[in-house]
Amino acid sequence: MAESYLSPLLISLKTVVVATIITFILGIAAARWMAHYSGKFKNLIDGLFISPLVLPPTVVGLGLLLIFGKDGPIGEFLSLFNTTIVFSWPATVISAVVMSFPLMYMTSLGAFEQVDSHLEDAARTLGASEWRVFWSVTLPLAWSGVAAATVLSLARSLGEFGATLMLAGNIPGKTTTIPVAIYFSIQAGDMNQALVLVGVVLVIAFGALAAVAYWKGKTYKARTTIMNRERVE
Amino acid sequence: MLEVRIKSALPGFTLDVAFSVNQEILAILGPSGSGKTMTLRCIAGLTRPDEGYVKLNDKILLDTATGVNLPANKRKVGFVFQNYSLFPHLTVNQNIGYGIRHLPAKQMEDRVAELLDKMHIKQLGDRLPRQLSAGQQQRVAVARALAPEPEVLLLDEPFSALDSMVKERLYLVLQAVQYFYKGNMLFVTHDLTEGYKLSSRIAVFESGRIVQHDQKEKVIFSPSNHTVARLVGFKNLMEGFVIETKESTALIKVPELGGSVRAIMQNNTNLAVNQRVTIGIRPEYIQLRNQPSSENTFLCTVDRVVEGVTATDYYFRVNTVGTTQHYITAIFPKPASSSIREGQLCHLYLPPEHVVVITD
What we know:
Chain A has one domain: MetI-like fold (Orthogonal Bundle), CATH 1.10.3720. Chain A has ten helices and no strands. Chain A has helices at residues 2-36, 42-54, 57-68, 73-79, 89-114, 117-125, 130-159, 162-167, 178-187, 191-227. The N and C termini of chain A lie far apart (67 Å). By secondary structure, chain B is α+β, with helices and mostly antiparallel strands. In chain B, the strands form four sheets. In chain B, strands 7-8-9-3-10-11 form a six-stranded mixed sheet, sandwiched between helices. In chain B, strands 2-1-4-5-6 form a five-stranded antiparallel sheet, covered by helices on one side. A five-stranded antiparallel sheet of chain B has the order 14-13-12-15-21. The longest helix of chain B has 17 residues, at 164-180. Chain B is elongated. The mean pLDDT of chain B is 89.
């Protein structure tokens, strides 16, 4: 019965890797945009970006179904090519991205806002374009916050259940991720299978927490070290 | 040549200034919160004022009337921030080279080496900012700002975070910068001495306005109004009215002193008899006399003495009739004054050439 453990593991792995890459790019881009945006709709957009974090996952899942389902805008478009997202592997990625995006966005935004704006101003007076300011000053100085954000969203993607179940369903070998497999194992009465899968998730989750704590400590240490300047005359 | 006109509403006051800087070092002097930093930021393009015009040599950097607003990275304005703002994740070499990365590698290296040498920090190239002392960081900040050969160098309270010994050394560094940097320099300070030592002209800011903009000697020794006089250290400002004028001198009755004071006019102001004026004299120029001489001498009692390291502050009470007490502050260098005690009677002489007449 090794396949019943291996299959969810492999599917989750693929999903998490792809989802994290997408969330990483989208989250940083959104955080960068909002850090400098001061228009009227700032609070509205910010709220929209964070909403999957506060809404029940099944509600988000329903929302996704309405968009990707056969009567939804994207669903209809895709049916022209005879494909559908619903109940396919890409659906696990989409659910994971949507549910982990708020974490990546919020944590990265916090990290960017903590970078001393005088440093960014200095870079501008030295001729750097906004792009160069971001890559050479903001991002390097915010990297431990961004790393923590990435790990958090990775862990979130791994544990994603509600929206995944609604959009991707439970198709063993195709869309059954670890959390879905755990649920259905318990439904079927197979405690052992469930516990093994739970164990795997716990190991990864605690690993993630440890990494986040380590990186947060690093930023704090870096700041206090600058404050108690080690001077070498 | 830098031309600046800025008008912007700020919390508490309106910034409304206009000035130019032409092949010189201008010190912007004023108390905290008078709009000095905001002005620099508008010149550099880091902040956009409500209305403004900034022209640097032949290029218009900002003109709100026509919609021109060059972004900061295109203005060729060098900026040294109050806390230096060195990039903490880059070495000294990388910090200084940040603005000249587009140059060919050899040229960039040479320029960095040249600046390290000129700032006397040659051996610090590979250090990180957190491994430098405040004075060293400041020099790196100046070198970094000068590397791209900006057309004007702005310094925002460059010495305020330093202790006095380090400051003195850095004044020399900033003076030396003039020998190899030929552009205009504009620095902001709240320290009078610093402003005087390092500049050729001073613009005094108060609540968002320039209250005097002149050669430094004029600002410090012949302030044109009350506000400036107070800001540049005139502790003895007294009301009076003109009794007579003769060529370049004026005789002014000062009720607080119970007598008249003769002043030699520095500017060619025409005073009218009975005109209300304020007279002032810097504490360092008051002299002690053994007996009353013919003019400008007043009998006072020593009220308080505060001894300093090189000079002592004396607070005198003027011996006049009447119930209100009036005070004169004088500073006498040590050791000439060491015998004066509290309660002692002294004759204070106000030399006419150092009495300033303010007509606002």
